[in-house]
Amino acid sequence: QVRLIESGGGLVQAGHSLRLSCAASGRTVSTYAMGWFRQAPGKERDFVAAINWSAESTNYADSVKGRFTISKDNAKNTVYLQMNSLKPEDTAVYYCAAKYSRSYYPRPNSEEYDYWGQGTQVTVSS
After folding, report:
1. φ, ψ (nearest 5 deg) of residue 68
2. For residues 120 and 93, what is the distance between their CA atoms, to the nearest angstrom?
3. How far apart are CA 81 and CA 59, in angstroms?
């Protein structure tokens, strides 16, 4: 069992930055792919970014490419999401997710992830 706890959310103005963290416990996530997803009010949960087990490969939604960076520190059992140039449309609850996978390509499909955090709210004001 993997427990995930997100932190780092908050209220920021458009154009500013935030860094989300997702701390894992229960098992080492060195053999897990990790992903970030988000859900805005009244909308479905969308893929944001993912990183493979070795942190050699990443995958991003088109809407965040060039602005967000996902990283993984296996020694700290933590995954990060650096969010720059934030826009009001980035406002959502952000969820961290994990799945056991040795695949090179980190897939964006939420239904493939086994473990989820409780989410952290990110609000971007215009």
Report:
1. -110, 150
2. 5
3. 12
- Looking at residue 89, its pLDDT comes to 97
- For residue 126, name the pLDDT band (cuts at 50, 70, 90): very high
The bridge status of strand 120-125 relative to strand 10-13 is parallel
Would you place residue 56 in the very low, low, confident or very high pLDDT band (cuts 50, 70, 90)? Answer: very high
Instruction: Give residues with Cβ within 8 angstroms of 29, minimum separation 6.
Output: 2, 53, 72, 74, 77, 79, 98
Question: How many beta carbons lie within 10 A of that of residue 25, not counting itself?
Answer: 12
Residue type, 48: V
Mean of pLDDT values over 33-61: 96
